[in-house]
UniProtKB/TrEMBL annotation:
<protein>
    <recommendedName>
        <fullName>NERD domain-containing protein</fullName>
    </recommendedName>
</protein>
<dbReference type="InterPro" id="IPR027417">
    <property type="entry name" value="P-loop_NTPase"/>
</dbReference>
Length: 1119
């Protein structure tokens, strides 16, 4: 008899299984039974008399007696099981193939009857007890076992007496109470074994010796892999995550549970520093402890089409056996196999790697765990998606306590990622309060792990070499050259060896990397600080694109407050200057910044009376004009004024700023009188707009720069409550001053102090009386958003102010804002009621094809997006419609020629709800799936509506709607791109893709790049044609055609000035050229990296994006 571990698993054979997959399946069962400490007897590969049936496996345990018919099936093809007739599998193109010429249900049932006949024969002879019920067949659990598992999407029609299970769940079923012969003991089964002529598995047979040798080879690999992986591996703290969008807490066991015994493909995603690789390593150890063979492959080690080389390099440190040989031993021996692919985003040939891994999963029953920073990786076809979330609350405390202390760490917003927390927890105890920034934590962490200043200097040289070459790794030959040229190491013979022995770096495959990129960036910043001769030179270094991310580190590392402030000032960054003035870089630096700002505000107030104003056309209804200043502000001075506004948001410099506003107000009123005398009917609004508003920006006065800084602080800064009022002391010293009122309005949105709340009605009343379109607009906005904080008497005073304001009805901007403000105080009666809207909808639906009714429908749908306190409950009325009427209303609303605000949303509802039966809906989708309208109020809205229409059209047609031929390049390019997108929405690839891309790259390259940029900006997640998944149009194109897109984007960089929007700066996502550089980081090759490195990393507009792209490419392509 054979025993596994300490659990008695006894195996008897009629004959040795002829097929490797049968031997492997039996070993899987045997190993899993042993792991769960479940004693059992396995009767393998024997025949019974009935129909000369061959029994694959009969398992006898304390819980069940199970007849197992083993069937190896292709796990990628859905299985179709019917009670009568052959079983089939569905091929990818939809056709079906038979997996046998008979039905497995009937085969398994006949085998059970055959076993039952044997037992009944022995019972008649008085050798064994009889059944407790009707016949022995009811005491045998009959299953068809799919090896390795039941394919996803299978259709298994039930059979009354036979079940279908996967090999991955067979032992789960066996562990549950079920059919069996519990009143039998071992003697009775021995009688059955002797009757069948089965023989026990020998200890010294050739097969047994081979199996033990194979098991020993796999066990030796596991032991060595475990020792290597566990060495110096920090502990793991359970992490917050989403598993298939459901919030959970994950640890090594959670990950292992999703991998053991299944051919799963798990995607583990998170941003850098959140612990993906750390969690994967702990999961690998847990899997190893459970008897699995884990193969760890760094994705950047893969070369296109040569997965075998990666496998060999991954296995060779732990075994002398060839990789495939060892995998075959593990598979046949029943050891589970898991491939871990770490940092998939670093692989330049992800699609090919995944293709080969899928093929490998078909060759071996293996699970796949992939770590990546990319949240979406459709080519992986993941069966489970795990997304690590940023740590919060209790988890932050546990991480900090595990690695050191949670004091000043767990609650600090300074440490955002798990990596940040682990470092801080280790060093925070030695850092004084107020000296524990991320920079100071890294400084102390590196100091603790660096034995000498010479070694630290060597590490700085290596970091700077990587920085200079825009790389994240260095070949070892270049490492040695760099260290030999490092002057700080020249006098210490052992310094080079000590540097290479540092725990902060690692050498793998003849390339050196820092243990974490944050260490390299910190050391680069330290190098800049130490090599710069003064603050001006350091500022110049930090303005280079390659160094912009190093500013915080460098400024914290600069210990001389004079040099530090000089650096900050020369950088001309208002955010940095404001931070310095508010004390972020220490008291000495704060005093210098405050003095600098104060002095400039005094100078600006003195210079204000010397400014003059001219209007573009005084008699026209225009707000355009120009200020002319005797003193022109330098970029540094402009930054100081903007910083003053940012500081004003926090109550600083209010007297000095007030004096500037008073001086500016005097010259503004002179300009107003002159304009009025020249015939202007909008003198106040024009001057206010060109001083504080969006007009005249090329000549903005100092007061306007200050208010702009305050607006920036409000938009992008901290909106927490303040300890002192800010708005009230700004405007009350001179209530008629336009600048004070304008700034006070900005400081009142939101209200952050009770005194400002009490005086808000007075501020609004005073400012509305003074006038000026942009001033009134800001005041009404402050009033509207103050409705959530104003109480009792103050609230009623505000209602009285708003109700008593006599606004010019022709001023639609402030009129609509006034209505919204009154509505926020519940002072507006809706224009119509629910019943009135329902009548309006019924009227529109009475003639769905009439243009007037379609225009009415467009207005109804657009009203859904307005404040129902003003217009009425349009959303409620539309939502209450039956589905078919609601879709008809949406279809009518998108038929007018002009595109309204709600058009993209309405088209999306049509796309998601249409089934192709309604003619109007089909016509609406065809219109928006057709040519993109060129003359629209919002191009982005038109693109969104078009993509929504195309996704809906893909559900009802495999071809684009017919259109007239066009010679317009943009229209031709859109048509070709739409052809590609249509098929991606439908889940397939267009046959003419090569020809389409040839035309796009040769006939319309510029327009095509612009379209790709528009798709990127749209960032849409749209339903696929089968409605079971979503498709992001841009990501889908990049995933399907990376090579073609790369060629286009590289062409775009060399034709930058010819591209529409090639140097566009205003858009928050950047211009076309910036888009091209960023996307090259995703699809670029080493050749692309060289192009960016040599021509674009120093470009003042594209440099930062180019550096990040080069880093991304290097991370994927370097070993």
């Amino acid at each position: 008899m054979n025993k596994n571990n300490n659990t008695q698993i006894t195996v008897f054979y009629g004959d040795q299984p002829a097929h490797a997959h049968e031997r492997r399946a039996i070993n899987v069962v045997r190993n899993e039974l042993a792991r769960r400490n479940m004693p059992a007897t396995l009767l393998v590969n024997f025949a019974v008399a009935r129909g000369a049936r061959q029994i694959d496996l009969l398992i006898v345990s304390d819980q069940r007696c199970m007849n197992v018919e083993l069937k190896h099936v292709d796990p990628t093809l859905p299985l179709i099981a019917t009670p009568n007739g052959p079983w089939r599998q569905r091929l990818p193109e939809g056709a079906e193939r038979m997996v046998a010429d008979h039905g497995y249900y009937e085969q398994a049932l006949q085998e059970t009857y055959g076993v039952a006949d044997v037992l009944a024969d022995l019972n008649r002879k008085g050798v064994v007890p009889g059944p407790t019920g009707k016949g022995f067949a009811r005491h045998i659990d009959t299953v068809v076992c799919c090896d390795p598992h039941i394919p996803a999407g299978s259709t298994l029609n039930r059979h009354a007496y036979v079940s279908v299970v996967g090999l991955d769940t067979l032992v789960d079923r066996l562990a549950q109470p079920g059919p069996g012969l519990p009143h039998w003991d071992r003697r009775h089964w021995d009688e059955v074994i002797r009757h069948l002529g089965l023989y026990p598995e020998g200890e010294d047979t050739t097969e047994a010796l081979r199996r033990r040798a194979d098991a020993a080879a796999v066990e030796d690999y596991r032991r060595r892999f475990r020792e290597f992986t566990a060495a110096n591996l920090p502990p793991l703290v359970a992490a917050a995550a989403l598993i298939d969008s459901a919030p959970v807490t994950v640890n090594a066991d959670t990950m292992a549970d999703h991998l053991v015994g299944r051919q799963h493909r798990i995607q583990l995603a998170a941003e850098s520093g959140q612990g993906k690789t750390h969690l994967a390593k702990h999961a690998a150890l847990t899997l190893t402890d459970r008897g699995q063979m884990v193969v760890w492959i760094d994705a950047d080690d893969y070369r296109k089409g040569h997965l075998i080389q990666s496998l060999r390099r991954a296995v060779s440190p732990f075994s002398t056996h060839e990789a495939h040989s060892l995998l075959a031993k593990a598979a046949e021996g029943g050891s589970g196999i898991t491939f871990v692919i770490d940092a998939l985003e670093k692989c330049p040939h992800r699609e090919k790697l995944l293709e080969q891994l899928h093929a490998l999963q078909n060759q071996y029953p293996a699970a796949l765990l992939v770590t990546t920073t990319n949240a979406s990786m459709p080519q992986l076809a993941a069966t489970c998606n795990v997304h690590l979330q940023a740590p919060t609350g209790v988890e932050r405390g546990r991480i900090a306590t595990t690695y050191g202390t949670s004091d000043r760490v767990a609650e600090s917003e300074e440490y955002r990622t798990r990596y940040d927390i682990t470092l801080a927890a280790q060093v925070i105890a030695d850092l004084p309060a107020g000296r524990d920034s991320n920079t100071e934590v890294l400084d102390d962490y590196i100091r603790r792990r660096t034995p000498s200043e010479a070694v630290r200097a060597g590490l700085r040289c290596l970091a700077q070499a990587m920085n200079a070459g825009v790389r994240t790794a260095l070949p070892i030959a270049e490492v040695m050259t760099t260290l030999r040229r490092c002057e700080a190491l020249a006098t210490t013979p052992s310094a080079i060896d000590d540097t290479l022995a540092s725990p902060l770096i690692r050498v793998y495959q003849a390339r050196l990397r820092f243990d974490h990129e944050k260490l390299a960036r910190f050391l680069t910043a330290e190098h800049l600080v130490l090599t710069a001769h003064d603050g001006a030179e350091l500022a110049q270094l930090l303005t280079q694109p390659a160094h912009r991310d190093l500013r915080d580190h460098a400024l914290m590392l600069e210990s001389d407050p004079v040099r530090r402030y000089d650096t900050i000032r020369q950088l001309a960054d208002p955010t940095l200057i404001a931070s310095a003035a508010m004390g972020s870089f220490g008291i000495p630096t704060a005093k210098q910044a405050q003095a600098d700002i104060t002095e400039l505000l005094v100078q600006a107030a003195a210079a204000a009376p010397h400014s003059t104003f001219t209007a573009k056309d005084p008699q026209a209804a225009s707000l355009d004009g120009t200020w002319h200043h005797l003193r022109q502000w330098t970029p540094i001075e402009e930054s100081l004024l903007l910083a003053a506004g940012r500081c004003a948001y926090h109550g600083m410099f209010l007297p000095e700023i007030g004096a500037l506003m008073d001086a500016t107000d005097t010259v503004m009123r002179t300009a107003m009188r002159d304009l009025h005398g020249a015939g202007s009917r909008m003198a106040i609004s024009t001057v206010v707009a060109c001083t504080f508003g969006p007009f005249g920006q090329k000549s903005t006065p100092a007061a306007g720069l200050v208010t702009q800084g305050a607006q920036d602080a409000r938009n992008f800064g901290d909106r927490a409550a303040t300890t002192i009022p800010t708005a009230t002391p700004t405007w009350t010293p001179n209530p008629r001053c336009l600048g004070r009122l304008y700034l006070a309005a900005l400081l009142s949105h939101p209200i952050r102090h009770d005194i400002d709340a009490q005086h808000l009605p007075d501020l609004v009343k005073t400012g509305l009386a003074v006038g000026g379109y942009h001033l009134r607009l800001k005041l009404l906005e402050s009033a509207m958003y103050g409705s959530s904080v104003l109480k009792s008497d103050t609230r009623q005073r505000m209602v009285d102010v708003l109700s008593g304001y006599d606004n010019d009805l022709g001023d639609w901007g402030t009129s609509s804002t006034l209505i919204d403000a009154l509505a926020s105080y519940d002072q507006i009666t809706p224009v119509t009621s629910l019943e009135g809207i329902q009548r309006e909808i019924a009227d529109a639906l009475s003639d769905v094809d009439h243009p007037d009714h379609q225009t009415l429908a467009q207005g109804i749908v657009a009203s859904m997006f307005e404040d129902e306190r003003v217009l009425g409950p349009y959303s409620e009325a539309i939502d209450s419609l039956p589905d078919n009427q609601r879709l008809t209303l949406y279809a009518m609303s998108v038929m007018p020629s002009d595109c309204s605000f709600g058009t993209p949303w309405a088209v999306k509802q049509l796309a998601e709800g249409a089934d192709g039966a309604d003619d109007l809906v089909v016509r609406a989708l065809a219109r928006y799936a057709g040519p993109l309208p060129r003359e629209t109020f919002s191009h982005s809205e038109a693109v969104a509506a078009h993509l929504n229409g195309l996704s809906g059209w893909a559900k009802i047609s495999a071809t684009l709607p017919p259109v007239d031929e066009s010679a317009d390049e943009v229209a031709v390019a859109w048509r070709l791109v739409d052809e590609l997108l249509l098929h991606l929405f439908r889940g397939d690839m267009v046959e003419q893709a090569a020809g389409i891309w040839h035309r796009l790259s040769h006939e319309t390259p510029g327009s095509t790049v612009t379209i790709l940029r528009d798709l990127y900006r749209a960032n849409s997640e749209l339903l696929s044609g089968d409605q079971n998944s979503t498709v992001n149009p841009h990501r889908a194109l990049v995933a399907a055609y990376p090579d073609q897109i790369r060629e286009l984007l590289q062409w775009a960089l060399t034709h930058r000035d010819d591209l529409p929007g090639g140097r566009e700066k205003w858009h928050p996502m950047g211009g076309t050229s910036g888009y091209a550089v960023r996307m090259l980081g995703v699809v670029g090759t080493t050749t692309t990296a060289d192009l960016l490195r040599h021509h674009y990393v120093h470009d003042p507009e594209l440099g930062r994006d180019a550096i990040e792209a080069v880093h991304a490419i290097d991370a994927r392509t370097q070993q």
